[in-house]
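$ ./design --mode recover --in tokens.txt
reading tokens...
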């Protein structure tokens, strides 16, 4: 097994882990926006990224798309697009007197395809039909039916780039009929004050000690060297526990490779669920995910951190391989990835076995509720396959699971 495989499992397992990196990253993220390849000029406010969601000044962005804002309050937007009045839902923010909204919600509603160019940090709004459609990839999706209820199981990769989109029609068609979107955690809430406080309370030392007091001198020296190579001070992460530092190190490489949570599969569907006004149900919680990482033994936390440090130079290549696995929908590679977890029993039990059982129980409940509803479930792809995977757990309960 190549060491980078387990190091990058967060990409296919834990949405919450990806969200923890944001508080310790150095610079604020300010993307650019282009409408049909024309840069949008903003006055009085600039686009921002918060926990994977790109927010843009609402009025200026609509004007650039030849649409007119008529009202925005209580997370409800009223606008005139192509002569028609539309109403849509999106989490609004007021920053220095300017109203901001998620760009994917606004772009989709105005008839644009929303893409992300990670290399130039640019959101691309392309008129649907303006370009020949491209295929983003096969991905992973299964279907389960029971007594009039349907559950679609989608394997996510929590960071992605423009090359993943548009998704193949089967994804969009299934989602269009869904009554509920199910996710590990609702990433649109990641910027909430309560969630941020939870990250800081769990991820930072509260007893006056620092990272240097909890890991070996050799590990600390390796970390300092890599932080300096990345343009940061060698003690920049001293306040944080090893599991947060490990996440940050991995994120540095994934961003450099051009992949970000802003383009992740789960966040893509969360934003579309907000637009469609369908409920988003969480199979887990921020607290449960963060508590899991925080509960790892001291030895495992340092071991995982060392894996990230020792393989830092090849992590970007590893991210590329993960992305290719998802886009080709390669079941064999996904199963190999999942099985590689078994080499570290503590990690495997917490990250996969225990969580898979709880998620399978919730999915079983959706299938049995007798309401003739459709659920579109999006969780990390590595949760599905293997002896302890969600697919096997549902089959053991008597369900037929069909690959789509």
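writing sequence...
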């Amino acid at each position: 097994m190549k060491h980078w495989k387990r190091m990058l499992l967060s990409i296919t397992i834990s949405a919450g882990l990806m969200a923890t990196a944001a508080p310790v990253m150095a610079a604020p993220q300010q993307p650019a926006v282009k409408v049909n390849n024309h840069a949008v000029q903003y006055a009085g406010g600039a686009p921002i990224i918060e926990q994977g969601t790109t927010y843009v000044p609402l009025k200026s962005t609509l004007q650039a798309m030849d649409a007119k804002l008529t009202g925005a309050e209580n997370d409800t937007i009223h606008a005139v697009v192509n002569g028609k009045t539309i109403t849509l839902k999106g989490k609004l923010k007021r920053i220095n007197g300017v109203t901001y909204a998620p760009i994917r919600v606004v772009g989709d509603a105005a008839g644009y395809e929303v893409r992300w160019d990670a290399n130039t940090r640019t959101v691309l709004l392309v008129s649907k039909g303006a370009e020949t459609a491209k295929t983003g990839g096969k991905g992973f999706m299964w279907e389960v039916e029971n007594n009039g209820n349907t559950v679609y199981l989608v394997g996510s990769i929590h960071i992605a780039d423009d090359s993943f989109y548009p998704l193949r029609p089967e994804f969009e068609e299934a989602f269009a009929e869904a009554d509920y979107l199910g996710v590990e955690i609702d990433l649109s809430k990641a910027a909430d004050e309560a969630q941020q406080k939870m990250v800081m309370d769990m991820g930072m030392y509260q007893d006056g000690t620092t990272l240097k007091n909890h890991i070996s001198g050799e590990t600390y020296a390796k970390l300092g060297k890599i932080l300096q190579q990345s343009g940061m001070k060698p003690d920049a992460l001293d306040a944080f526990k090893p599991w947060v530092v490990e996440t940050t190190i991995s994120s540095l490489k994934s961003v450099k490779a051009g992949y970000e949570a802003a383009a992740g599969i789960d966040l893509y569907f969360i934003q579309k669920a907000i637009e469609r006004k369908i409920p988003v149900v969480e199979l887990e919680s921020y607290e449960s995910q963060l508590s899991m990482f925080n509960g790892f033994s001291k030895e495992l936390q340092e071991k995982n951190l060392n894996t990230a440090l020792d393989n830092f130079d090849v992590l970007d290549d590893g991210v590329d391989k993960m992305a290719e696995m998802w886009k080709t929908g390669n079941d064999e590679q996904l199963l190999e990835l999942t099985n590689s977890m078994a080499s570290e029993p503590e990690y495997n039990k917490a990250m996969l076995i225990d969580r898979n059982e709880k998620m399978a129980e919730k999915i079983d409940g959706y299938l049995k509720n007798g309401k003739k509803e459709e659920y579109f479930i999006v969780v990390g792809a590595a949760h599905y396959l293997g002896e302890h995977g969600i697919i096997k757990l549902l089959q053991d309960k008597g369900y037929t699971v069909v690959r789509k």
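exit 0
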